[in-house]
Write a structure and sequence with these properties.
Layout lengths: L1 H13 L9 H21 L9 H25 L8 H5 L7 H28 L11 H24 L3 H15 L12 H6 L3 H15 L5 H32 L1
Helix pairs in contact: 1-5, 2-3, 2-5, 3-5, 3-6, 3-7, 3-9, 5-6, 6-10
């Protein structure tokens, strides 16, 4: 645990080390994205969230979805270079390489927690104190954590074997941004397209997060348990895949 904590501290603080803004960038980045997306979709395109709260209400719905998506996107984008960028751990040190994607997942959730803090401040300033259901947001993080681990293990291993993985995840990330119900509500999508969008593992997480933060609704316990079980199975499969390819890392890097 001490090693993981040190790696997390190094990864989190190292990202902002040497910059003038320091840790303030962790707050500025989500606010900047929120402002741009709200300007484009809420002001220019005049998209509202079922008439709730106008542009301000849309901004909060959008931000709630981005908290989930940004955590997933961070792990996805960093995964292909995780092993390649730590060659000393692969070649010169006996090191549990499985920890590196774990560290990425923890750091992603730390940034998501900062995003939650920013969302809370925006909500208090714009529409008032949110509902008490906001206190259950860790449930969404809990269900998402194995998914982040699985993505990290899978694509970090692929990043060593297939160097095109880094380019592929860039495309995947952009596609997911629009097929995940961030800029719109999945309830407004009907027919077979609705069922297809629900296959996206982020769709349920975004819906649960919005329900807790804005709707005062609780995700079904059975649904959370099932999602967590599937996420754990995916993470276990990804870890098995990672360990099968690990003997090849030193020769391929």
């Amino acid at each position: 645990m001490g090693l993981i904590a040190e790696l997390v501290r190094r990864e989190f603080s190292g990202r902002y080390q040497g910059s003038l803004g320091g840790l303030m960038w962790a707050l500025v980045h989500p606010l900047f994205l929120l402002s741009i997306y709200t300007l484009v979709f809420g002001v220019v395109l005049k998209i509202h969230w079922d008439g709730e709260g106008g542009t301000l209400g849309y901004a909060l719905h959008l931000f709630a979805g981005l908290i989930v998506f940004n955590a997933f996107s961070e792990c996805l984008m960093k995964a292909p270079a995780t092993i390649i960028g730590n060659q000393n751990f692969v070649k010169k040190v006996v090191f549990p390489l499985e920890m590196l994607p774990l560290v990425n997942a923890i750091v992603a959730l730390l940034h998501a927690a900062i995003g939650m803090f920013v969302w809370f401040l925006c909500s208090v300033l714009l529409i008032g104190i949110p509902k008490l259901s906001i206190l259950l947001f860790p449930l969404v993080f809990l269900a998402m954590f194995p998914l982040l681990l699985g993505v990290g293990w899978l694509f970090s291993a692929l990043g060593v074997v297939l160097r095109d993985t880094g380019q592929a995840v860039g495309i995947i990330g952009h596609v997911l941004l629009f097929v995940t119900p961030i800029f719109y509500s999945i309830d407004n999508i009907s027919g077979s397209l609705h069922s297809i969008l629900l296959l996206n593992p982020l769709a349920l997480l975004v819906g649960w997060m919005r329900g807790l933060l804005l709707g005062g609704s609780m995700p079904g316990l059975w649904g959370v348990v099932c999602y967590l079980a599937v996420s754990v199975l995916f993470a276990c499969g990804a870890l098995y895949f990672f360990r099968r390819l690990r003997p090849l890392f030193a020769d391929l890097i």
